[in-house]
Design brief:
binds nicotinamide-adenine-dinucleotide, SDR_fam, 7 helices, NAD(P)-bd_dom_sf, Rossmann fold, Short-chain dehydrogenase, 7 strands, 44% helix, oxidoreductase activity
């Protein structure tokens, strides 16, 4: 039996990278997938690709920082597929910038997407799960939610926030059949990483390679499925050994 048979999964950042790889794997495991992204062109193309393979998929253009758009996303999902079982709360942005001349607007923008947006999606998921019989949330943090690094203060602070948001929400809803865990990826070969940085990031990783989005998807599937049925408030760090150093 497939691991997400007849489940409905919302995947933010679903048009690219880790989100897209996870949407593919979820669909192969029997889920109806709702792809959420700002990038309409990539999102629609990926929706068509999944449908051509015989999967049920829907792209909903949504900015995760908009309360109204996030509410509308859940409404459209329930109208189309009848329910929501799994939310992969994954969309994010990141840019390297020295902190002493980081514009406040850029700080705000990063924290707005990477932490506030994660909260807004989680809040709407909780509202839906409380009406139903529970559900599962997987948030995407980062290994830089555990440890620091130069040039990414806003991103790292937001990702550390995602880790403790995950634990706090998990405890708050543990008795409501709602499980909430997080993924903390290392350096993964997706469009968020500039081509010119890849070599140095490989050399910084103990396994001497970048992770693949498909390797993240397998960890997300574990947390989204009943394979992790007694796990909540946890963070799965998948980083080629980086944070073991
Ligand atoms: N790739 C890595 O090395 C790495 C490492 C640690 C954590 N992460 C995290 O993994 C997640 C996925 O990143 P990725 O590597 O797949 O990058 P990606 O750029 O391929 O995918 C991110 C997607 O999020 C979308 N997005 C950005 N802002 C949005 C918004 N406001 N509303 C809706 N969609 C929005 C983008 O359009 C993009 O399609 C992010 O949260 C990122 O911080 C990535």
């Amino acid at each position: 039996m497939s691991k997400l048979h007849n489940k409905v999964a919302i995947i933010t950042g679903g048009a690219s990278g880790i989100g897209a790889a996870t949407a593919s794997l979820f669909a192969q495991e029997g889920a109806k997938v709702v792809l959420v992204d700002l990038n309409e062109e990539k999102g629609k193309a990926f929706e068509a690709e999944l449908k051509a393979k015989g999967h049920e998929a829907l792209f909903v253009k949504t900015n995760i920082t908009s309360e109204e758009e996030v509410a509308s996303l859940f409404k459209q999902t329930v109208e189309t597929f009848g329910k929501v079982d799994v939310v992969f709360n994954n969309a994010g942005i990141g840019r390297v910038h020295s902190s002493h001349d980081l514009e406040y607007s850029e700080w705000r923008n990063t924290v707005n997407v990477d932490l506030d947006g994660v909260f807004l999606v989680a809040r709407e998921a909780l509202r839906e799960f409380l009406k139903a019989d529970g559900g599962v949330i997987v948030n995407t943090a980062s290994m830089y939610g555990w440890v620091g690094s130069p040039g990414s203060a806003a991103y790292n602070a937001a990702k550390a926030g995602v880790i403790n948001l995950t634990r706090s929400l998990a405890l708050e809803y543990a008795e409501k059949n709602i499980r909430i865990n997080a993924l903390a990826p290392g350096f993964i070969d997706t469009p968020i990483i500039p081509e010119e940085s890849k070599e140095v990031l490989r050399s910084m990783t103990p396994m001497k390679r970048l992770g693949q989005a498909e390797e993240m998807a397998k960890a997300v599937l574990f947390m989204a499925s009943d394979d992790s049925s007694f796990m909540t408030g946890n963070v799965l760090t998948v980083d080629g050994g980086y944070t073991a150093q």
